[in-house]
Amino acid sequence: MKKDIILGGVGGQGIVSIAATIGMTALNMGMKLKQSEVHGMSQRGGDVMSNLRISDKEIYSDLIAEGKADMIIALEPMEALRYLPMLSKEGWIISNSTPFKNISNYPDEEKIIAELKKQPNTIIVDADKIAKDLGSAQSANMVVLGAAATHLGLPYEELEKAVKQMFGKKGDDVVSQNINALKAGFEAAK
């Protein structure tokens, strides 16, 4: 099994938590992992990008070549569009539909979504709304991860276990919020 994943979002949206959860899942399963992150101006609302490579065989580079990503996981649609050239022809796009308008000339969101939907394998969920409906707006990233779980090739139960490990020190309420968000995203993507 091998997955090359591009993660994209804006600083503070939780890309690092998604990468850590997938990575912990892979390591728990005895897989290999390589990761590279670019934070840029993330603390000022800038873009955050991560290359995440998991495999049951040796991985020699932490970077994914253009056109070779198996999946783009984006916490906002313009970031999914930004990394589209990285996606393989058979790859999946998993994106939140809610834009993060951190620039004055943010493109028309309907056009962005339409462009993403031109790809053969696209799942777009309103992760912000789902998370708010669950009473935990800050768990939208876990909703997107749950949607991605439908095509990650990792057992859902193992992702849930990693979420418990990741957030366990923050208490049972935080763990429950994140597990509920993961489940909701998984169900929304089915």
Please summarize what this structure is.
This protein has 190 residues and is α/β, with parallel strands linked by helices. It contains seven helices and six strands; from the N terminus they run E-H-E-E-E-H-E-H-E-H-H-H-H.
Descriptive labels:
6-stranded mixed β-sheet, Pyruvate-ferredoxin Oxidoreductase, domain 3, alpha/beta, 190 residues, globular
Radius of gyration: 15 Å
- Given the structure, what is the number of helices? 7
Q: What name is given to the CATH topology?
A: Pyruvate-ferredoxin Oxidoreductase, domain 3
List the strand order in the largest sheet. Answer: 2-3-1-4-5-6
Classify the beta-strand content into a percent band: 15-25%
What number is the mean pLDDT?
A: 93
Output the structural class: alpha/beta
Q: At the fourth CATH level, what is the homologous superfamily?
A: Pyruvate-ferredoxin oxidoreductase, PFOR, domain III
**Approximate helicity band:** 25-40%
Gross morphology is: globular
What's the total count of β strands?
6
The helix/strand order is EHEEEHEHEHHHH
Kindly provide the name of the CATH class: Alpha Beta
CATH architecture identity:
3-Layer(aba) Sandwich
* Low-confidence runs: none
Distance between the termini: 22 Å
Biggest beta-sheet profile = 6 strands, mixed
Number of domains: 1
